[in-house]
Amino acid sequence: MDGFTRVFVRERQRIVHLVRRIVGCDSTAEDIVQDTYLRLKDRHLGEADLSLVFRTAQNLALDHLRSRRVRHEHARQASHDTDVSSASPEQMADSRARLEGLLQTLRGLPPRTRRVFLMQRIDGWTYPQIGQALGVSTSTVEKEMMLAMHRCRDFLRRQAQAESTAVAGERYTLT
């Protein structure tokens, strides 16, 4: 057993305790601690690098909470949006058109940018995980996400402006 593994095994319970306090779940804490070990085992770390182990575990736990919060918010929004029983045909058509516009915006992204966006937003991967899977730096992943988000926000902003212009036009024709 190498020095890092020996130190990790010795300190494992403290690491699990730290992560459990952050995520509030025993099994999730165990998974995150295992992920921490797998991420660091090939770095030839020693006892002096113990703070890096704790910091990595803490960051992974916080990443988990962030992605869980985003997934929960998306699920909440999706359940709110899918309540079609009270939606008028016009609202359904508007929602469908907005969705098609967003999909068209995503199709217009460069392939790697689109893949980064989908891996993060749909699959819930962290930026470091995406960077490792695609063989690029975390900084590159961040830049790709900024581009994708910027394009989506631009589309939604244009859509909102078009809707407000249409509503203003209706107001003048109805009076």
Describe, in plain words, how this protein is organized in 3D.
With 175 residues, this protein is mostly helical. The chain has helices spanning 3-23, 26-40, 50-81, 89-107, 111-121, 127-134, 138-174. α1 packs parallel to α3. The protein is elongated.
SSE map:
Elements: H1 3-23, H2 26-40, H3 50-81, H4 89-107, H5 111-121, H6 127-134, H7 138-174
Structural class by SSE content: mainly alpha
Q: Count the strands?
A: 0
Helical residues, percent? over 70%
The overall average pLDDT, rounded, is 85
Which overall shape is indicated by the principal axes computed on the Cα atoms? elongated
Poorly predicted runs:
none
- Helix and strand run: HHHHHHH
Could you state the oligomeric state of the chains shown? Answer: single chain
Strand content: under 5%
The largest sheet is: none
Tell me the number of helical segments per DSSP (H or I, 4 or more residues long).
Answer: 7
Distance between the termini: 82 Å
Short description:
The protein is an all-alpha fold and 175 residues long.
Labels describing this entry:
175 residues, 7 helices, mainly alpha, 82% helix
